[in-house]
Amino acid sequence: MTVVRTTEQQSEESFGRQSRIIALVVAVAFFMQILDGTIVTTSLPQMAATFGVEPVSMSIGITVYLLTMAAFVPLAGWAGDRYGARRVFLASITVFTAASLFCGLSGNLVEFVIARAVQGIGSALMTPVGRIIVLKNARKSELVHAISMITWPALTAPVIGPVLGSFITTYLTWHWNFLINIPIGILGLGLVLRFVPDQREEKVARLDFIGFLQSAVGLTFLLAGLEFVVQGATGLAPSVGLIAAGVVFSVIATRHFLRIDAPLLDLSAFKVQTFAMSTLSAGTASRVAINATPFLVPLLFQVGFGRTAIDAGTYLLFYFAGNLGMKAITTQMLKIFGFRNVLVVNGLISSASIGACAFLSPSTPDLLIYSLLFVAGLSRSMNFTALNTLGFADINAAQRSSASTLSSMLQQVSLLLGVAVAAAVLNLSRTIHGGETLSLVDFRWAFLVVGLIGAISALRFISLPHDAGAEVSRHKVKT
Q1: What pLDDT score was predicted for residue 150?
Q2: What residues form the membrane-spanning segments (predicted)?
Q3: Which of 239, 263, 287 is the last residue of a domain?
Q4: What are the residues whose beta carbons fall under 8 Å from the beta carbon of 217, sequence distance 6 or more?
Q5: Spans in the chain with pLDDT lower than 50
Q6: Whether residue 323 sits in one domain with residue 189
Q7: Which member of 157, 222, 229, 438 lies 3.0 to 4.6 Å from 34 by CB, making a disulfide possible if both were Cys?
């Protein structure tokens, strides 16, 4: 029997194929951006030797990148609407790629810091504007798959970045950790020009400069404080002072956005339960656990177990495989069980796998470690995709740009907060038992605390309705 497809069905299939291609194009740019943030840390000692400075001085390259990115993230949604998301996305890739070239060609620390600052500006606009492009070109029925596509860089790049960086630094030179972005960036530019349509809003309000300044200062101070907690170089008082200042400016910015008619950021998205829970409250706590794990796991194997970086990289490959393995069934799992059940049950599995790492030791059989890391990667991937998709399930077109920017800002906070919490527990445990260096018991406490945070956040999602995000997941609730 011959099946004849209607014009409407053909149009639907064509639109779905186009949305998947656009999501893949955006994912390429995201991968370049996130890989850069993780790959550079492995080459800091070699870079310090090239520049003739102490290795500790190289941390300014990471910090300035983080702070310039924080300062310009609040501008992303407005810029995408004002000048067109495609045009801003192209500009962000161009700036990021060019800055990567100058990072690789830097001859001294000053040149490197300037290049990293420019790179941070490109990075700030890339993520929220890229997500806006995906949201504009995907129907709700395609949203899970589209978000899944642009989520995989955030899951895989932090895992493979340190391994790849170690290989490049060992067998090539540190310069290639930045120069590797050039072909990826050029590929991304070509793909955007070929596949991403030029879309822009008809009417866009003037730039809310006061709101931009307040939110930029608030986010910058907050992330700077968290970064200094992670580095542990400035002492507790300055870090807490910066965090407090960040909170104060963020509150001032929030009051400003609620008071004026055309704010830089439309906070009405937080009135949508699915967005608020998946990005601000339970979602932030869940991401703390998600983001702390890639920080703790390599340290556990290298510092706690005394293994080499190559050995640690071998373990991480199984974690990486788990992250990728879940992608094939994420859409189907959400369709069968719905967002609420997945976030609760999978969240508890993810938290249990994190907590179980506390009981690993150098004598634990490799097969058991591989299995645990694979399960941790599977559940982490599912949680990440479910959170990112649910956040935009009920967001309307008018809220889309601000919601994407707010989501990016909160994800930056949760990224550093996860690492800061893990680092704080490690240092607190070391101080309590009087150790000069980190020991296995310190890692045990860190994994248990992070796992507990994840479990509590998973239980918070019980308050979601059974049909939360059902239009996106296509989950049918039994009555």
Answers
A1: 82
A2: 21-44, 56-76, 88-107, 113-134, 146-168, 174-197, 209-230, 236-258, 342-361, 367-392, 413-433, 445-464
A3: 263
A4: 71, 249
A5: 1-4, 7-10
A6: no
A7: 157
